[in-house]
Amino acid sequence: MVNETNLVLESNHELGEIVIAPEVIEVIIGIAASKVEGVYRMQSTFTNNVTELLGRSVHGKGVSLTMNEEDGIDVDLYVYFKYGVSVPKVAMEIQKRVKQQVLFMTDIELNEVNIHVIALVPEKVEQLDLQELFENEEADNE
């Protein structure tokens, strides 16, 4: 979620100005963060969940931007990690990758990238098929 409306990059009076919507930066950040090894997923809202159920991707979820005139842009990321990863290493990799991608794609330098680890998600355990289990018992009893 963004406080301001648009970001105006340095303008060239001969060619015009370049304006980037904050949602674009949120999408860049969301994709960069989700591609880091150890990230399970980003936190989403009810609206994002409904949108994904309808078949559309939501890449800006779990990202919050705060724009300050004097400091620049602060980013807060709300992330679920996979169980068993080194939380500090993954968090620092997210910070590094997000800053690099935003700088590379928009020429905007982020002031802060704050990582909020919501939860650790364990691997899914394969569930037993009860039908198959009871079929094997019946065959042994015959």
Q: What does the model show?
A:
There is one protein chain. By secondary structure, this protein is an alpha+beta fold. It has 4 helices and 6 strands; from the N terminus they run E-E-H-E-H-E-E-H-E-H. It has helices spanning 22-34, 46-53, 87-106, 130-141, and strands spanning 7-8, 19-20, 39-42, 63-68, 72-82, 110-121. Strands 3, 4, 5 and 6 form a 4-stranded mixed beta sheet that branches. Strand 5, helix 3 (87-106) and strand 6 form a beta-alpha-beta unit. The chain is elongated. The relative contact order is 0.17. InterPro entries: Asp23.
Question: Characteristics of this structure?
Answer:
37% helix, alpha+beta, 4 helices, Asp23/Gls24 family envelope stress response protein, Asp23
What's the helix and strand layout?
Elements: E1 7-8, E2 19-20, H1 22-34, E3 39-42, H2 46-53, E4 63-68, E5 72-82, H3 87-106, E6 110-121, H4 130-141
Parallel strand pairs: 5-6
Antiparallel strand pairs: 1-2, 3-5, 4-5
Structure summarized in a few sentences:
The chain has 142 residues and is an alpha+beta fold.
Q: What is the chains' assembly state? A: single chain
Which shape, going by the Cα principal axes? Answer: elongated
Strand content bin: 25-35%
Q: How much is the average pLDDT?
A: 79
Query: Would you report the number of β strands?
Result: 6
Termini separation (Å)? Answer: 64 Å
Structural class: alpha+beta
